[in-house]
Amino acid sequence: MALRLRSEKTTDGIRSLAELSKQTTGVMYTFLVLIVISGVFLGFQGRWWGRAWIWTALVAVILTIGVMSALGGRFNAVRGAVGLPAWDRRGKITTAAPGSPEEIRLAVKAAPVGVITAIGVVALALLLWLMILKPF
Known about the structure:
The structure is a single chain. This protein is an all-alpha fold. The chain contains six helices and two strands. It has a two-stranded antiparallel ribbon with strand order 1-2. α3 (52-72) runs antiparallel to α6 (113-133). The two termini are 36 Å apart.
């Protein structure tokens, strides 16, 4: 969604992408929890808890989730700009009227698309390296 967001020209298209993102968030977090649970289970199965690589992978997953969630929160401005429910600064969900096309474009421009994508790709590469090679 994030990569497509910047190239979308219409307000309705941006709204559709923001709505799709919001609808799939629950599914994403469900599978993220399943990945962590299966990793912990397999760590016991393989008796790897005495090895440093599995602890490094666990810390990398937790840090990546935290950083990407914090940066992903900036997409709330896009949701709010297109008139969808969004978290405000006080932690409450608010709904406002859609902003002007210029306000929507500014909110899309401010979203950290490249940074969040780069963090995800680097974290995935690190995790694959750790899990496949088990270097330490």
